[in-house]
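ok trying this again, last paste got cut off
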Amino acid sequence: MAKKIVLFIIVVLLFLSACVSNSLQDTAIVINDAFGQEVSFSKAPTHIVVAGKQTPMLANFVYLFNESSEKISAIENRSQSSNQFLSLIDPSFPEKLTLEKGAGAEQISAFEPDTVILKTTMKEQIGNQLNDVGLKPVYVSFETIDEIYRDVRILGKILEDRDKSEVIINFYENNKNTIDLMLKDSQIASRVLLLQISESENNYVYSVPSASWLQTLMVEELGGEPVWKNDASAGGWMEVNIEQIIDWQPDIIMVINYQGQSPEMIRKLTEDAVWNQFISSSEIELKPFPYDFQSWDQPDPRWILGYASIAHFLHPDVITVDILSGLVIDFYHELYGLDLNMINDEIISLLQSQIE
């Protein structure tokens, strides 16, 4: 009888030990960030700050997760802000605290965050200082398609919603694979120029993306020849002049403007004497890269819409306007949970002159 009691006690203790262990396992989180370094939390972060360069794009990724609104304490105010969009999907967003652009470690630590989400490029500028004041930054990159998938999973762990991270990745993979399959027999290899155009003191400023950036990779994956690639290996946006653009001899120019003015930029180019001669003599197509709340060419959740846009520009008979518009509706409905009326009223209406 005594042996049975001892055995019973041992079983109970083992069961309780397992319960405690499982409980700790459920609350403690260890994340391997974009640098591969382990960041440990005794429990899931509930006070998160999003800061540094490309904050709008990082915030857009975070907001793909349903419970993110309750966990974000502050977002740094950067140019090309997505405040209008975030206010659309999160009615409480205007009440959230905003960090000033370039906020330092002391300003960020005043919010007492559990963690700070940063781009890998911000490690030297602000990340190390955050470590010095006892904060735990988690780094993401989002610069290539594979990195987007990896970093979405990182956010899924931080926000305790791994199921949603797989939903997001499946959406991207399925739609990218569908586009690729539709184009597998296409033989056209257009010479493509992705050209950012802005105005400064009544002059045009032209620049092209780095050879290693997402924009360049998407053009190549879709069978286009990025004519600027061999000249843009240094990293960052590279300024070019009209002579260089003419020398590249593109078949199609996809015009990017981060203030949402791509159609206006194209109109102005066609009225410029030099550009008009260049366009007409070379039979070049100019296409506005779509922009709703942000331009779709960037490492933002909308990258799949940018991928589909390039596919449409290069193969309009295969990837039609209806296919592109349908993807836009699916993207905002399935990933952000917006209803169809809101998508039509607030988003599709912004795109009518851009995805024809």
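PB: full thing came through this time. The longest strand covers residues 191-200.
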